[in-house]
Amino acid sequence: MNDFAVVWDWNGTIVDDAQLFVDIMNPFLKEQHLPLIDVGAYRESFEFPIINYYRRLGFDFKKESFKSLGSRFIDIYQEKRFNAPLFSGIFNIIKKLNKAGVLQFVVSAQESSLLSSSVKHYGLHNFFCAFKGVNNFFADGKVELAINLKNDYLSNIKNVFVVGDSLQDLLVARSLNATPLLVSYGHYAKHRLVGYNGAILIDSVAALNTFFLKNIKTIN
User: Fold this and answer.
1) Which of 104, 110, 168, 187 could bridge 115 with an S-S bond, Cβ 3.0-4.6 Å?
2) What is the pTM of this model?
């Protein structure tokens, strides 16, 4: 089944952590007397590069630099990240793909050591050929990771799918000449993912499972 490969995003695609990101961010907003957010507002605001997300929320970098804000955010995230669950049903999809012989990878904007410990914490490490995170805490370099992954693993794979919840994952898919499966249950509101040529919109984990059942015939 090496004609097929799936490249997964992590946050908001496998791990249901939008609420965690909101809970960590709101005290920072309160410090600068900015409006607090809920998950709906978060999904409207979140974007890459991350500095633009902070700008959207109204942070004044004269009061505190983006680097300082981001570093403090990551410190708290490291302590609380395992409070977020996997999306219900996602473990079974990954397990079934693995059983069917589909090559699976994670390419994430999360820092490499954090990603590695997280994948192992949730018991998913044996299902992936590789899981690649960036070399910084500011979510820079994901597309470059994907290009390296293509050179190392994917150059001879006919059918590659990228599963992710943001427009950055669309760029990842394009860098791999892969089919982007953009999930609308993660960190981006659905309307922000609509209208991109070649992208397939997936509204739920159940719909993702159905897609793979239809398009990778050996899965059951």
Assistant:
1) 110
2) 0.95
